[in-house]
Amino acid sequence: MSTIPDQRIKLPALVGGPPRIWDVPLQAAERLYRITGNTGNLAFRYALFKHLGRDARVFSWNDDAVQLNSVSTVAVFPCANQIGAHQDCESRASFTKQLDIPVLAIGLGAQAKNQEAVPDVPKGTLKWLKEIQERRAGASANITVRGEYTRRVLESLGFKDGVEVLGCPSLFINESLSLGKSIANKLDSPPVRIGIAAGNPSRPVSSSLEAKLITLALRSGGSYVVQHPLPFVQVARREFEGVSDEWLKKIFLFINSDINCEIPKSRHELISKLSSRSGKLSHAHSFFDIETWMEHLKMHDFVIGLRIHGVMLAIQAGTPAVCITHDSRTEELCQTMCIPYVKAQELEEKGVILEDLYDIVRNSATSFDSNRKLIASKYIRILSSAGITPAKYLLSLANS
Q: Are residues 235 and 347 both part of a single domain?
């Protein structure tokens, strides 16, 4: 029997990129990265696809919007931190303008250094927000945002109505009704294997802290997962050929910044050091498949790091985890969804005290579960208002 959807049946459309990629081991990181960008983007795409009952048509922003109209009942946009000076969504505005069906934008975020700053937003992005707002179905919101900070930013830009604070849809990958409690119970015994959601070699402000965390993980027999940028992902996959000498040196310094070591003079020696079985990079991994990623994190006892979706996937896999916040994006997501977190500055000042991090997870268990139930009920209302039948387990979460 064919698994290709009958084109005569109208289904929800997921716009922006695939929730899953096939033949990952056979493809180069550069090609995979063009599809995903930061690999964490796969987390909320995968989540939304599951919430739509794994029964949606998948479109890219380069596809034909007129065709989407003919085969879909509603267009769902999995969003990230598009609100800021770093991205002009003019092309997305043009695509959305051609749609004559309801539109939902899920998980939109604003990006700034802190939650007091209001980012400059390009005209193209303002046009895109207006086109989305005009395609609202019913009384419920059709723009969900990552946190209160993003809601305030949108309100300051003139987008007050039709906006709801829900965090990220990746909060609902796991179907457990008591996920927070079950995670906290795992800390009755001291964690042994620790994993790291790796940061960014281009951000030297956190490199010393990151290197200490990596050392901590490796001493425990754990690993660290790389999400961004492309050269870091390539090196984690041992694809050295396409990485410049400059990036190789930058990555070498990043993962070794907690110790005094001399940078190898030749490219050959540098690659040899990075790929050595005894080197830190030997425990690095990068994933382009959410289920494989979660399976890997499930094999750890505790996860910590600066990547919110790396931490979120650990939690969804049932592993205790804490996010290290360093900007408005990560902090508002943690606050909205009651994700255990600690500020990077605090760890840099006090040092990494594991028992303190475990306590953060224990203390957040009850609030995490009750807050998750509340967000699920709001989420269901928004999906239903757009004519979407939510996955059954979402209903169970909301009514638990």
A: yes
